[in-house]
Amino acid sequence: MNVTPMNSLAQVYDREFRVRGLRQQGWGRGLMAVAVLIWLWLGYLLVFPFSAGEGAHLKAVECESRAFHQNGRAALSYRADTGERCDAERDWGPITAGLLLSLPFAVVGTGLYVSGTSALRTAAYAADVARLNATKEI
Q1: Distances 99 to 8, 38, 79, 108, 111 between C-alpha atoms, Å
Q2: For 61-70, which contacts have Cβ atoms below 8 Å and span 24 or more sequence positions?
Q3: CA distance 112 to 116
Q4: Closest CA to 119 of 13, 31, 34
Q5: Residue 62 has pLDDT above 80, yes or no
Q6: How far is Cα 99 from Cα 89, in angstroms, rounded to an integer?
Q7: pLDDT surpassing 60 at residue 3
Q8: Tens-place pLDDT, residues 109-118
Q9: pLDDT exceeding 70 applies to what percent of the chain?
Q10: What would the DSSP string read from start to end of the chain?
Q11: What does the alpha-carbon distance between residue 72 and residue 20 come to, in Å, rounded to a whole number?
């Protein structure tokens, strides 16, 4: 029997399909990296101690981290443990806004990465099936 090789139009389409899959994977990785960087920054803001900046006629104050604070035997609230200046310096509003800002990057990045990966797996599967069909005809 005569085995016809894959025509050039099909090869071009297959190559473009794989390139689109790789591009989607790359964009997905990039967007997920942005989300991870935001999460690392938020983790830094929550875990590490800091100093409340100098204001008009005020000295800098050393503050404990928001995650690990305790004044005495039982941790009350961050404001009660560290004071109002430290609480105002690391307010929950910007931290929550950063978390909400990262969610679209994470969701869209994950979707693009999964879509690109499944496109590449589909192309590999189709190539394997075509190769098996070609060997069966011989």
Answers
A1: 48, 7, 22, 15, 19
A2: 61/85, 61/86, 63/89, 63/90, 66/90
A3: 6
A4: 13
A5: no
A6: 18
A7: no
A8: 999 999 999 9
A9: 78
A10: -PPPPPPHHHHHHHHHHHHHHHHHHHHHHHHHHHHHHHHHHHHHHHHS-EEEPP-TT---EEE--SSS--SSSS---HHHHH-HHHHHHT-HHHHHHHHHHHHHHHHHHHHHHHHHHHHHHHHHHHHHHHHHHHHHH-
A11: 59
Q: What is the CA radius of gyration of the chain?
A: 27
pTM of the model: 0.75
Whose structure tokens read 């035997």? 73
Reference 106, options 56, 34, 48, 46; nearest CA is 34
Q: What is the pLDDT of residue 1?
A: 43
Give the span between the Cα atoms of 113 and 106, in whole angstroms.
Answer: 10
User: For residues 117, 118, 120 and 122, what is the CA-based torsion angle, rounded to 10 degrees?
Assistant: 170
